[in-house]
Amino acid sequence: MKMITASVLALCASLAHAQDAADLVLKNAFVLTMDKENPEAQAVAVRGNQIVYVGDVGGVESLTGENTEVLDLTGKMVLPGYVSAHDHVLGSAWSTLGVDLNAAKDKEETLQMLRDYVAENPDLPIVVGQGYNATLMGGGADCR
């Protein structure tokens, strides 16, 4: 009976470890975390599409299972990344600044949105924004 109980416990422990194991482990790396409190690490573990561990090599061992892909990076650098198939980084940044005119339906609404923004931000030396639609201004070269 003791032998069966021990076997069942060992099996349960093995299954629990398999469920907690990472899919990918990067170890012996130079990891720049961009975290002021912990700027560097030596290991990273990934499960599914989530990073589940960043730290030292000793800590990542408990996340390594028999199906974990382990890459020994022998000191190579790992950086956090922003990956996009198509992005306009500067345009994306600009779209968060200033007045957003995308909702304007006509010339008067566009001008009113600009007036409101200027009134709410009187100390700005210039007005920036995005979403200007020249077709709402009545056409022609002089669209004032």
From TrEMBL:
<feature type="domain" description="Amidohydrolase 3">
    <location>
        <begin position="69"/>
        <end position="137"/>
    </location>
</feature>
<keyword id="KW-0732">Signal</keyword>
<dbReference type="InterPro" id="IPR013108">
    <property type="entry name" value="Amidohydro_3"/>
</dbReference>
<feature type="signal peptide">
    <location>
        <begin position="1"/>
        <end position="18"/>
    </location>
</feature>
<dbReference type="InterPro" id="IPR011059">
    <property type="entry name" value="Metal-dep_hydrolase_composite"/>
</dbReference>
<dbReference type="Pfam" id="PF07969">
    <property type="entry name" value="Amidohydro_3"/>
</dbReference>
<protein>
    <submittedName>
        <fullName>Amidohydrolase family protein</fullName>
    </submittedName>
</protein>
